[in-house]
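Tutorial handout. Part one gives the primary structure; part two gives the three-dimensional structure as tokens.
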Amino acid sequence: MTAKRETGSVNGQRKLIALALQGGGAHGAFAWGVLDRLLEDGRLAVEGVSATSAGAMNAAVFAYGLLQGGPDGARNALREFWRDIARAAETGNPFRKLPWEKLLHNGYALDHSPMYLLTDMMLRILSPYQFNPLNLNPLRDVLEQHVDFDALSKHCPVQLYLCATNVETGKVRVFSGEEMSAKAVLASACVPLLFQAVEIDGEYYWDGGYVGNPAIFPLIYNCATRDVVIVHINPIVRRGVPTTAAEILNRINEISFNSSLMRELRAIGFVTRLIQEGKVGRDDMKEMLIHSIRSDETMTALGVSSKFNADWDFLCFLHEKGRSEAGAWLATNYDTIGQRSSIDIQHEVL
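Part two.
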């Protein structure tokens, strides 16, 4: 599969893109919806994926589904994966069968529920080394049921990059190629207050969102396409000043988990300006074209606690939101692919 850098097309047919998938716990079901709609549309071909945390899970399942059965295989794989996530979390879920659309319109916030407050308090007193000394992780079993990582590491149909944070050095670690494994995905999704650090080759890793949510640079350096479609999970803008402890912690989390992406976008904007002003030749630097699929309205209506809610109805609610946003984005911005960015980077990050 070869790319025409000027047009973003693949052999004159499907347009070639790279995907950047953010993390965000159960909110990653929004990205599942986005992927589902893009695959259904069929006009785009994915060359590479950079992903973090829940985005890394989506990326691994997406890639393995492609390997096994093409676009339809990827759609089915993602649906079955999220269905099993819901099954694994069904027991004791206090948020089951809630009318999510109606609740969100009425400003409902899970962050004030007694269950959330109790759990939040426990996580601030006990570490995962104390409340989970056996280091049990239900995500491991679900991942290994849905992805043959040995096959994926050898025959991955896309360039796949998963980001994790090295606990001791604070540096980003990008797993790719033959490094692909269930451990790499779990490292990318290792929330420090919930799970023990994941050890790989003598190094320890936490969630990649702290240093790359997701990292764009692997796509710039390694992919032929200039078009990167970012699937956002964490809201960039949230109007109003948070006043409760839960609201403050939620906004700190959002800002922290967007900071590395914002820095990379500022760098991309700087290089783009140099190229467009003729200060740097197009043969010397790569002008990236950035696109964005997100729903800040949906995500700002959700509290941080809902990132731990794997109720199937809630996941389906987010999936449909993702499908809707992806469909709207395709209708408005498909023609910009290969031609120009569909977001104003300077306005977004400066």
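Part three, for discussion. Residues 269 and 345 are 6 Å apart (CA to CA). Residues 1-8, 92-110 have pLDDT under 50 and may be disordered.
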